[in-house]
Design goal:
340 residues; mainly alpha; Receptor-associated Protein; elongated
Length: 340
């Protein structure tokens, strides 16, 4: 379920419940909204609710609904705060969607420039294959790559697909934690500018989910487990058992998180201050708002970094082409002025 779909679903459903609408009526309306996958999942909810099943149980059986949403629905059904929690979830998913949209908007122009640069190089390769010099034969290879005509363009695109395929595959393997690659997260956090920004965004997700869970009255161990899962990182999820064991042994929230060694000291310090104030839920909600702002700034840093890399790559590609062409042209002039 995408962030935008989750935000809209939680908002409509929470608003309807707050107005006193029947849950089956709301689900029937939701079954006509969204993607085909979403409609099918909501229809399964209708069937289950009619049979007397609880909503959170049905959502937990369907992989379409996020784990955070399923857990909050369970807490809402138990505490009678379902419409309130759905409202908080809607705001949470809206923030995540805004971060994603901001990132895509920031790299849109560099991506266009990269596409344009590839198009220019492709056109040059194609022209070198169809044009012939007055003396006959083939045109001089201006780029020095040995690529000409339509075949050369296809080979050039093949190399690009291979490069982007390897790059995309590496990203996919990282997010899927293939072969435990997420254990390299501490090394990634050491990258200047980029690493701390990624860490800030991850902690913002953790903090917001923890705030929602504690605000709903969920016990600390379950709240931490839910918040760790909300990071979408197996590196953080791996700390779930250790934090649960620490809390069961009597450790405070800050001590339990500190023992994992995956959170920065300033974050642990703020959690500790929240505990001393005696208002964990309200203080962590304030901390979550702070990290939401920091996450927005961090996303700008990441998008600018990626945009800069793309623009530098385009500039390098075009400058290389220009210097190659100029060297060929100047070579012709040198040959023309050589004594016979």
């Amino acid at each position: 379920m995408s962030f935008s779909a989750a935000a809209a679903f939680c908002y409509r459903f929470g608003t309807g419940l707050h107005a006193g609408a029947d849950i089956l009526v709301l689900l029937a309306s939701e079954s006509r909204i969204g993607s085909a996958r979403q409609k099918a999942s909501v229809k399964q909810l209708i069937v289950g609710v009619k049979q007397g099943e609880q909503l959170h149980v049905l959502m937990g059986e369907d992989k379409f609904f996020p784990a955070l949403m399923t857990t909050m629905v369970r807490v809402g059904e138990l505490t009678g705060k379902l419409e309130y929690l759905l409202s908080l979830l809607s705001e949470h998913y809206q923030r995540q969607q805004q971060l994603r949209r901001g990132f895509l908007a920031s790299i849109a122009y560099p991506a266009f420039m990269l596409t344009a640069g590839i198009g220019i190089i492709s056109l040059l390769i194609y022209l070198m294959g169809i044009l012939t010099p007055p003396s006959g034969g083939q045109m001089t290879d201006l780029l020095g790559w040995g690529l000409r005509g339509g075949t050369g363009v296809l080979i050039f695109w093949g190399y690009l697909l291979l490069f982007f395929g390897i790059f995309g595959g590496a990203i996919y393997c990282f997010f899927r934690n293939v072969a435990g690659v997420q254990n390299m997260v501490p090394l990634i956090y050491m990258i200047p500018k980029l690493g701390p920004s990624i860490q800030t965004i991850t902690i913002a997700r953790f903090c917001r989910a923890l705030s929602i869970a504690l605000g709903a009255g969920l016990e600390p161990t379950a709240s931490i487990a839910l918040a760790l899962d909300a990071t979408d990182s197996d590196y953080y999820r791996a700390a779930r058992d250790d934090t649960e064991q620490s809390i069961l042994e009597g450790a405070t929230l800050s001590n339990a998180l500190d023992k994992t060694r995956i959170f920065p000291d300033d974050f642990i310090g703020k959690i500790e201050i929240a505990e001393h104030s005696g208002t964990d839920s309200e203080s962590i909600a304030f901390l979550a708002a702070e990290y939401d702002e920091r996450a927005q700034k961090a996303m700008k840093v990441i998008s600018r970094t990626i945009a800069g890399v793309i623009l530098v790559s385009v500039a390098f590609l075009l400058l290389y082409a220009m210097f190659r062409i100029m060297s060929v042209v100047f070579g012709f002039y040198e040959q023309a002025f050589e004594p016979i």
